[in-house]
From TrEMBL:
A cellular-component GO term for this protein: plasma membrane
InterPro entries, per the entry: GPCR_Rhodpsn, GPCR_Rhodpsn_7TM, Olfact_rcpt, OR51/52/56-like
Single Gene Ontology MF annotation: G protein-coupled receptor activity
Transmembrane is among the record's keywords: yes
Residues that span the membrane, as ranges: 32-50, 62-87, 99-120, 140-163, 196-220, 232-252, 272-293
Organism in which the protein naturally occurs: Octodon degus
Membrane topology: Multi-pass membrane protein
Keyword set, alphabetical order: G-protein coupled receptor, Membrane, Olfaction, Receptor, Sensory transduction, Transducer, Transmembrane, Transmembrane helix
First-listed, main subcellular location of the protein, grouped into a coarse class: membrane
Protein's name according to its UniProt entry: Olfactory receptor 52P1
Residue ranges of every copy of the G-protein coupled receptors family 1 profile domain listed in the record: 41-291
Length: 311
């Protein structure tokens, strides 16, 4: 058995989607379409929020931060994936692999933390509407964004650092990107610390964040039940609907992908790899659409831009 010690010269090989190598060129069509949709959709929302003073509210500032996290995750994933699909360029240096891992997983942690902050925003909007601007000041939004970034860096940075201590029995990664668990499985020495830490991050991020989001919405539901007006109840629920769609779209495939990595041994590899890519891409694709449809101010600004363009 060959053993590859980690060094600056170590190079991994990404297989792409095992079992579907002959279909890579066809698969590149939907993937490149999603890549383009993420760049246009998230870029447009970010541009609108930055350039329109009327959108400088806590809700839209948090949305802009979410768009940034989505763009970072997608830009870390897609260029190398398309190189594998289009040019069969599968090699990736160890340092580049660990850097890609850090940005993909780090952006996912930041995204989750921002969804918690947005749940807080919806709680204040429904339960304390008269004090909304007082409680959610711009400085608080800035601190929430900084906390999300810090959480992403501190939780994910140990992953590549721990991997650098391992020797690898194989450098062929059956994946389209440097997923943490996919790389851990290539190591031939003691990987229990890596596996335990990866599970700890999942439980802390997904488990704790979902618990906080659930607690916020339990309080929102309690407040909505107390409302006597049917119109007020509908308005309150409508205020939260976009965020709830995004939460479902973000966490459901992520949880399934994480579980199948550990216990889904009978699931075909290509199914797992496709899902692992989609759980990164789908939220980034649909977030601008969901928020654009549900948020009146966003629709108004888009309409104004389109009207200016037709003049």
């Amino acid at each position: 058995m060959l053993i590859f010690n980690h060094s600056s010269s170590l190079t991994f090989t990404l297989l792409g989607i095992p079992g579907l190598e002959s279909q890579h060129l066809w698969l590149s069509v939907p993937f490149s379409s999603m890549f383009l949709a993420v760049l246009i959709g998230n870029g447009a929302v970010l541009f609108l929020v930055v350039t329109e003073p009327t959108l400088h509210t806590p809700m839209y500032l948090l949305l802009a931060l979410l768009m940034v996290a989505d763009l970072i995750s997608t830009l870390a994933l897609m260029p190398k994936l398309l190189c594998v699909f289009w040019f069969n360029n599968r090699e990736i240096a160890a340092k580049a692999c660990f850097t890609q891992m850090f940005f993909i997983h780090g952006a996912s942690v930041v995204r989750s933390a921002l969804l918690v902050a947005m749940a807080l925003d919806r709680f204040v909007a429904v339960c304390e509407p008269l004090r909304y601007n007082t409680i959610l000041s711009h400085s608080l939004v800035g601190r929430l964004g900084l906390m999300a970034l810090t959480k992403g860096v501190l939780l994910i940075l140990p992953m590549p650092l721990l991997l650098q201590q391992l020797a690898f029995c194989s450098v062929v990664i059956p994946h389209t990107y440097c997923d943490h668990m996919a790389v851990v499985k290539m190591a031939c020495n003691h990987t229990r610390p890596n596996r335990i830490y990866g599970l700890f991050v999942i439980l802390l991020v997904v488990g704790l964040d979902l618990l906080l989001i659930g607690f916020s919405y339990a309080l929102i539901l309690q407040a909505v039940i107390r409302l006597n007006s049917r119109d007020a109840t509908f308005k309150a629920l409508n205020t939260c609907s976009a965020h709830l769609f995004v939460i479902a779209l973000t966490y459901a495939p992520a949880l399934f992908s994480s579980i199948t990595h550990r216990i889904g041994h009978h699931i075909p590899p290509h199914t797992h790899i496709l899902l692992a890519n989609l759980y990164l891409l789908l939220p980034s694709v649909f977030n601008p659409v969901i928020y654009g449809i549900k948020m009146k101010e966003m629709r108004g600004k888009v309409a104004q831009c389109l009207c200016r363009g037709n003049v």
